[in-house]
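Entry 14. Two folds queued back to back today. First construct below, sequence then structure tokens.
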Amino acid sequence: MVKGNLDSVDLGIIRILLTHPTMKQGEIAKSVSVSSGTVTNRLIKMRASGLLSGHLFDFSKLCDHKVYRMFFKLDKSSKSEMSRAISYFMDLDFVINVKEVYADHYDIIVDYLIFPGDSEADAEDEGAEVVKKAQILREVPVEFKDSIRLRELGSEANQLSYFELLV
């Protein structure tokens, strides 16, 4: 997509289609507080740019965005605690997708966007932005402190091993 064209409405539509791929456009419109026509137009633009193919998103088409992934393990993973953690992550405006998984190594996968610039100085800022967003993801709200502890994957020796660049 053209640089700067991905806004909060686009992100809202993407989030919904990632979690509810069969949702009707009218329901999507209500969820993101726009008209059905706006959703239709946004989907047309996403398809034309190659970002959306059917209901599969190809994030490599976002020339001015990068998608990163973090993995978290819940210390206590009841269904209600998992739901609370997923809701917390989805409320962050830069998070585009949260997946609950059943694996030995992790319970939650969080995909998030970084908006890099064009210059070399911006490339340094991008690294700082990746770390800043990761810190926000790590800061579990006070109401979760007793029941949910998110542990990142990675060791002290390799602090950035939990970042995975998707595109």
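Second construct, same run, same settings:
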Amino acid sequence: MIFLFVCLLLPYKKKAINLCKLTLYTVTLTKFAYFSISFLVEILGSLMYTIMSSPSRESVVVKI
């Protein structure tokens, strides 16, 4: 099946390469977005925990 796909794309080599680049770029961008959001959630969760567990609760009030 893959061999047939490659044979069909040989005449359109430049377009096939661009398609592969676009596919890889999209996958990379999706992974980057996922890890960025995960990192942001981790940082915000840590910050919220630090603020809520501060010794003087009267000075800092955080409601989310």
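Quick look at the second one. The chain has a mean pLDDT of 70. Residues 15 and 63 are 53 Å apart (CA to CA).
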